[in-house]
Structure formats: C-alpha cells, structure tokens
Design a protein that fits this description.
- The complex is a heterodimer of chains A (about 300) and B (about 230).
- Chain A has two domains: about 220 residues, Aminohydrolase, N-terminal nucleophile (Ntn) domain (Glutamine Phosphoribosylpyrophosphate, subunit 1, domain 1), CATH 3.60.20; about 70 residues, Alpha-Beta Plaits.
- Chain A has seven helices and 16 strands.
- The longest helix of chain A is centred in the C-terminal third of the chain and has 14 residues.
- In chain A, strand 9 and strand 10 form a beta hairpin.
- Chain A has about 300 residues and is of the alpha+beta class.
- Chain B has about 230 residues and is α/β, with parallel strands linked by helices.
- Chain B has one domain: Pectate Lyase C-like.
- Chain B has an eleven-stranded mixed beta sheet with strand order 1-2-3-4-5-6-7-8-9-11-10, covered by helices on one side.
- The chains are: A alpha+beta (about 300), B alpha/beta (about 230).
Chain lengths: ~300, ~230
C-alpha cells in the first residue's frame, strides 16, 4: 500500500499557494505510507540553455558552498544555487552530460534527484509530515506537483527507494502497487543501457519509460507500451514539464480518485486527501477507468 | 435528531455512539457532517436507525449494516454496504469498487455510477445502480438481484451462481457462464417493484436479463485434461 497525490493548477493566481494547498494532501496519505515520502514540484523555470538539477546529500553538514565554487571553476560557466535542508537546487548554463560528469568527479557520493528546466524532486525517509516540514513544502510555489507516501513492499526503506523517481528531463513517476516482472525487465533494460541504482520495482517502471522515450515514443505512446509490458498492480502519476498524467492497470486493483474545478485538477489514492482543497464540495469527482490515460497539460508557450 | 460533527469527533466515537444508541434506541435519527471521505462510517449498526451522512464517505461505509437506513449525500469509497444483512443504504453520488460485496440482504441504491466489482460475491442483497457499473461486476454472485440503469463493463457476471442481473444499457462483455435470458412477464413485474423501491422512474421492459448458464456448477470430467 502507498499513497499518491497530485495537484495541477488551472488558475495561475493560485501558484503562490501550491505548496500550502498540497501539504495537507500529502499528510492525509500518512496511513497509506508512513515509511518515506517525497514530491516533485514544477515551476521557477530556467531559461533557454540553462538546466536545473536537484541534488541530495546523505550528510546534513555537506559543504554546498565549496562544491558549487569548484563546479563553477570546472564548468567555466555561470550558475545559481540554493540549499534546502540536505538538498540543493542548482541552476546552470551548461549541458546535462557536462554537469553530471563534473559532479561525479567532484562529489561522487551526491545523488542527482532530478534534471530539467522546471522540476525539483525532494524526498526522504520518515513520515510525510517530517518530509514536508524538512523541505518547507508549505512555502513552495509552482504550477503543479505530484507526491508519494510509501509503505514499502518490494524493496528496502531507503532514501533511494523513495518516490518520485526521475525518468528523464522534467519527467518523474510515482507508483502505488507492485510490479511482478521487474526483475526480468530490469535485466532487459540494462542491456539497452538503462542504469539502475536500487532493487526497487518502481525504478524499473521509471527506467522503462526513460527507455521508451529514448526510442522516440511520446508520453502517450510510452504509457501505451507500459500497459503491455508492465505486469502487476499499479496506479501511476507521471509529472511532466507542462502537467501530469494518471494511469491505472487494466485490473484496477489500486485506488485512484480525480477531482476537477475551474481552478485545479487533483488526484489522490483516496478522497480524504482531497477534502482539504478549496471548493472541493462543488468539484467534479470521479474514479479513473482502468487502462485509460488521463493527461492534463497546459499549452506550451 | 442527534447530530455529529466529524471535524471535531473521531470516527470511533461516532460509531461507538451509534452502537450504544442501538442498545437503548432513544434516538432514531442521526445526521453526520464533515465526513471528509473518512473510512468505516456507520459500520456494524444493528438497529433500525435513520442515518444521514452529509458529504463524501471513504471505504466500507455502512458495512455489515442490519436494519438501519443509511443515506450518503456524496460519493463513497471501496466496499460500501459490504456484507450488509438487512436495512437499506442509499448513495446520492457514485460508489468506488466492490459496492455491496458479499451482502446477504437489504437494499443498496447508488444513484450515480459504481466502479469495478460491484456486487462481487453478493449473497441475497438487491443492488440498484442509476448509472454505469465497472468491470468484473457480480463475480460469483450467489443470490439477490443487481439492476443497472446504465451500461455494464467487461466480464459481467463471471462464474455466476443464482444472482439475477438486469441491465438497461450495453454490456461490454459477459463473463464465463453468464448468458442473456428471456425477459418474461414475471421478470418485468419483479423489476418494476425493485425500481419503485429504489425510486427510479425507468421502464422495466427496456431492460435485459442475464443469469447463469449453470455450466460451471460441477466439475466436468471432460475438462480433466485442461488441468
């Protein structure tokens, strides 16, 4: 059992309150997932040529200032960064491969949680309440956000096993359920050059999407293939730069509920997580159909 | 009338109050506000109380109900009226999966849609759904009647025993051993009474009847090679 939640704002006037609206949603899913929690928030986009990375260290006293200084020297380009608890958001005017190579040399123990123009992924072990207060979720702004509360079944409770999982530039995945063919699929994906860091089944689903997108699929095509190739129970929420998508397996064992008003689209494992949203009494509330894709994306600028 | 605000009281306090009340029967009418999708509301009631829930309810609402009339002004989560024995449950909105699962008696009315596995393993309850129902509904239904005013999803009535199913709209597919049967005068009459009880103004003659072909009741020696 796990809890997943997502909130996509249709009304830009609410963007300054995204974290505040989302925090109670995440915490309402504590019963479904007390082991670890995390979220991917979208907003504060970097300009053309720049990328944004979320980095996380296991050490709370990690010297970010020293690292960023060294990184600036190594890359020879301008960068901007800020620290958030044991994580840091880095904005840099360079190519992803060059930044990854420099980071691997300067700080090999550091984890890159996300890369993109908009996405920031923050996650860790502990109750959802601890995670949201650690990263000051309530103060965050943005256009949309998806989150996860984990009750571990398929692999150990670790920061690495926490969701969301990054699946490429500005893409991420959260999962409620369990995949039964993840071992074989992981072996196959490794042959295609996809790297894995954990024994976690969701990481395989994330790696699968990364691989499909690399093969030239768009998100919809990649999810269509996922319905064929992923065996098991799942409700997925997928964050994209412009919005989010929800999909359930054909048997639809794992719950999901959607709500829409003029101001937002929200999804959760249970209605309880939506009860705190403004105007929910008048929202259109429904259960997504099995094996059916639901995608909300703002029009690209 | 007794009122209960679930923004300040816990579900456990509410259910305990219902059970205590059931013994004394001083107050028949109950109204609950701020239900907020909480699970296990009004579970295990066993006296003829009238309970109104103002808002959405979570999982297993009105589970194991006996005698009480329970109305939800909102949607309900998984397993509404699960294993109900008697009484009635009315959902003004829609229901999630496994509505009325294993229920033995009473009447469950869902005015909106019901999700997958509606009436799974039902054992005598009557279920009337105003909208559509999801896949694998009435799986292994033993007894009782399932009425659907909208459409039914895949594998309706799979491995069915003696539940009778009436569907007005389309059926995406029938499950193993479930077949369409003739709609005779006694079925139209039976359905008319049920629709009246549920408060739906729909022509019973516009429904089709489905039931068990009774081919899976016993093991057939001809199939032995399949195992």
């Amino acid at each position: 059992m796990c809890g997943i939640v997502g909130l996509y704002l249709k009304n830009p006037a609410l963007e300054s309150q995204l974290g505040k609206l989302f925090e109670p949603m995440l915490q309402a899913m504590t019963d479904r997932g007390p082991d670890s929690a995390g979220f991917a928030i979208y907003g504060d986009e970097v300009g053309a040529g720049w990328i944004k990375l979320t980095l996380q260290s296991t050490a709370s006293d990690f010297d970010w200032t020293a690292l960023m200084g060294a990184l600036e020297g190594a890359l020879g380009c301008s960068l901007d960064w800020f620290q958030n608890a044991n994580a840091a958001v880095l904005k840099v005017n360079a190519a992803e491969a060059a930044v990854r190579a420099a980071l691997a040399e300067l700080a090999p123990g550091l984890r890159i949680m996300s890369v993109g123009q908009s996405i920031e992924i923050l996650k860790g072990m502990g109750l959802p309440e601890e995670i949201s207060s650690r990263f000051s979720l309530a103060k965050m702004k943005g256009s949309h956000i998806i989150g996860h509360t984990r009750m571990a079944t398929e692999s150990a409770v670790t920061m690495e096993g926490s969701h969301p999982f990054s699946t490429g530039m500005d893409l991420c995945l959260v999962h409620n359920g369990s995949l039964s063919n993840h071992f074989r699929l992981r072996q196959e994906l490794r042959r295609h050059g996809i790297e894995f860091e954990t024994e976690n089944d969701t990481e395989v689903a994330a790696g699968y999407l990364t691989w499909r997108l690399r093969q030239g699929d768009n998100l919809k095509q990649a999810l269509d293939h996922a319905l064929e190739d992923l065996d098991g129970f799942y409700t997925f929420a997928i964050g994209t730069r412009d919005g989010f998508a929800v999909i359930r397996d054909p048997v639809a064992c794992k719950p999901a509920i959607l709500a829409e008003t003029d101001d937002y689209v929200a999804m959760a494992s249970e209605y309880q997580a939506l009860a705190s949203l403004p105007g929910i009494e008048k929202a259109k509330v429904w259960e997504p159909e099995p094996a059916t894709m639901y995608i909300w994306e703002r029009k690209s600028a | 009338m007794k009122t209960f605000d679930l923004s300040s009281a816990s579900v456990r306090e509410f259910n305990q109050a219902l059970h205590d009340q059931a013994k004394q029967l001083e107050e028949r009418e109950w109204r609950v506000s701020n239900s907020g999708g909480k699970h296990n509301l009004a579970v295990g009631v066993n006296q003829p109380l009238d309970i109104v829930i103002d808002g959405h309810a979570g999982y297993y609402c009105a589970g194991m109900n006996q005698q009480a009339n329970i109305t939800v002004h909102g949607n309900v989560g998984v397993g509404v009226a699960e294993n109900m024995m008697s009484g009635s449950v009315r959902v003004k909105g829609s229901a999630s999966q496994a509505a009325g699962a294993t229920a033995h008696g009473g009447l469950l009315v869902i005015e909106g849609d019901a999700g997958a596995r509606c009436g799974i393993s039902m054992k005598g309850v009557d279920i009337v759904v105003g909208g559509n129902i999801g896949h694998m509904s009435c799986f292994m239904g033993r007894a009782g009647r399932l009425v659907v005013c909208g459409d039914a999803g895949d594998a309706l009535g799979d491995s069915l025993y003696e539940t009778v199913i009436y569907v007005k709209g389309s059926v995406k597919s029938l499950g193993a051993d479930c077949i369409e049967k003739e709609m005779r005068a006694e079925h139209i009459e039976e359905l008319r009474v049920l629709l009246d009880k549920a408060g739906f103004d729909v022509d019973p003659a516009s429904f089709k009847r489905y039931g068990s072909a009774r081919q899976l009741y016993n093991f057939k020696v001809d199939n032995a090679s399949a195992y």
